[in-house]
What we know:
Elements: E1 2-12, E2 25-29, H1 36-43, E3 64-73, E4 83-91, H2 102-116, E5 122-130, H3 137-149, E6 153-158, H4 165-179, E7 186-188, H5 197-210
Parallel strand pairs: 2-4, 2-5, 5-6, 6-7
Antiparallel strand pairs: 1-3, 3-4
The protein binds guanosine-5'-triphosphate and magnesium ion.
Amino acid sequence: MKIKRVEFAGAMGRPDQLPPGTLPQVAFSGRSNVGKSSLINRIIGRTRTQLARVSATPGKTQEINFYRIVSEAASVQGGGIPEELEFFLVDLPGYGFAKAPVEQRMKWRPLIEGYLGGPHDLRGVVQLIDVRQGPTPDDHRMIQYLSATGLPALFALTKVDKLKSNERERQLPKVAASLGVEIDQVVPFSSLNGEGTEDLLDSIAALLREEDDE
Ligand code: GTP
Ligand code: MG
């Protein structure tokens, strides 16, 4: 899938707000500081002039941010004429940041549950896990919640550039096992060097197409 155009489309700060349109959506979920905003910038090709705000201070993204993407992908029929896909990538606020002010932590749950349980055309969720730590108790709670919603989920293991190759060989199967999935169901990802970008874009394209084919 090739990205053609991207723009910030709007934000949702309260559960009673609506997304800035009715396009199909894929959301990114994960602990604060796991690399959600960095991953979005990388896969939409905005590493120099970032669209999603990235910060070394956890808890930067406190609203749900919507990015409108127009992409081109090979047509399902394989007729050679590329098909245009238009959708939102959705940056969810991170969880598990112990130092977050109480009011902020109180707002997170209704906002996230309101959005994930809402009547929007949400096709799936990419759950990010820090490859060095593996899933935390908060991650397990989130994964359980996601599986109860019945939404398709993908796993991206972030910051894989921080592992040496022998650590990587040990860590990838370990993290997959603690997530309860096969090794080929996780995407090792680095927003620093772009590893995993193609894989993730292909998986996102598949999520976006699944319902169109029905
Ligand atoms: P919140 O908005 O607080 O929920 O955080 P986030 O998940 O959006 O994380 P963000 O993308 O802001 O990244 C947090 C920090 O991790 C920043 O300092 C990034 O530069 C760094 N970071 C993110 N992804 C990677 C990666 O793949 N490799 C390395 N080395 N650093 C990364
Ligand atoms: Mg962020």
